[in-house]
Every structure is written in structure tokens, then in C-alpha cells.
């Protein structure tokens, strides 16, 4: 196992994950870790085990999140708003069938 210092565990790359901060070598964003930990209640061990990550990766992501919490929480809110807007604009084929519209 290669030793990575904490400042190299979280990276931002413009063409990967939309430039969001993520765990180096993975497409798992700090935002993902924050949602799983704070909103779903998963502990660091669960996240590390589920996604085959080192505990240090999880703690580095959480530390990054707490330093940049306002920015990342805003990104989460924007993502939720986008999904809701798309749901309002796009009809569900299943819902249409259930209502006999097709």
C-alpha cells in the first residue's frame, strides 16, 4: 500500500466528475462521502468497506468537506433542485401507462 499524504488524497480534475473534489484514483466525490456520512448515517468504516477505500481516504474527504461545507452543501442543493425540475418537466412513461394515456 502506497503512502499518500493527506493533501494528495483529494484532487480536482476539470474533466473528471465535473471538476468536483474527489478521492484520488476514484470517481467518488467528497460530496458522495458527505451524503453517505452525514445524511445516510454511514460511518467511515462502512463507506471504506463498501467502496474498497482506505479509511484515510474517507477521513480526508470528510476533512475537506468540513472545510468547504458551504460550497459542497450548495452543490448538493443545486443537484436536488435540478432533479426536481427534470421530474416536473419530463413525464414518466410508467405513470402515463398507469393512467391509460398511451
Structure explained in plain terms:
The protein is mostly helical and 102 residues long. The chain has one domain: Orthogonal Bundle (Arc Repressor Mutant, subunit A), CATH 1.10.10. The protein has 5 helices and 2 strands. The chain has a two-stranded antiparallel ribbon with strand order 1-2. Helix 1 packs across helix 3 and helix 2 packs across helix 3. The model has no long low-confidence stretch (mean pLDDT 88).
Keywords:
102 residues, mainly alpha, 5 helices
Task: Set down the secondary structure blueprint.
Blueprint: E1 10-11, E2 22-23, H1 30-39, H2 44-51, H3 55-67, H4 69-89, H5 93-98
Antiparallel strand pairs: 1-2
Q: Count up the domains.
A: 1
Count of DSSP strands = 2
Task: Report Rg.
Answer: 17 Å
Q: Any guess at the CATH architecture?
A: Orthogonal Bundle
Can you count the helices? 5
Q: Give the N-terminus to C-terminus distance in angstroms.
A: 56 Å
Describe the main β-sheet briefly.
2 strands, antiparallel
CATH class: Mainly Alpha
Structural class given helices, strands, pairing? Answer: mainly alpha
Amino acid at each position: 500500500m502506497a503512502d499518500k499524504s493527506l493533501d494528495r488524497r483529494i484532487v480536482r480534475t476539470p474533466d473528471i466528475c465535473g471538476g468536483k473534489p474527489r478521492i484520488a484514483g476514484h470517481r467518488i466525490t467528497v460530496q458522495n462521502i458527505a451524503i453517505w456520512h452525514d445524511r445516510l448515517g454511514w460511518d467511515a468504516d462502512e463507506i471504506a468497506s463498501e467502496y474498497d477505500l482506505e479509511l484515510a481516504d474517507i477521513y480526508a474527504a470528510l476533512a475537506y468537506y468540513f472545510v468547504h461545507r458551504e460550497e459542497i452543501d450548495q452543490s448538493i442543493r443545486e443537484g436536488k433542485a435540478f432533479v426536481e425540475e427534470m421530474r416536473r418537466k419530463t413525464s414518466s412513461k410508467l405513470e402515463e401507462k398507469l393512467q391509460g394515456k398511451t
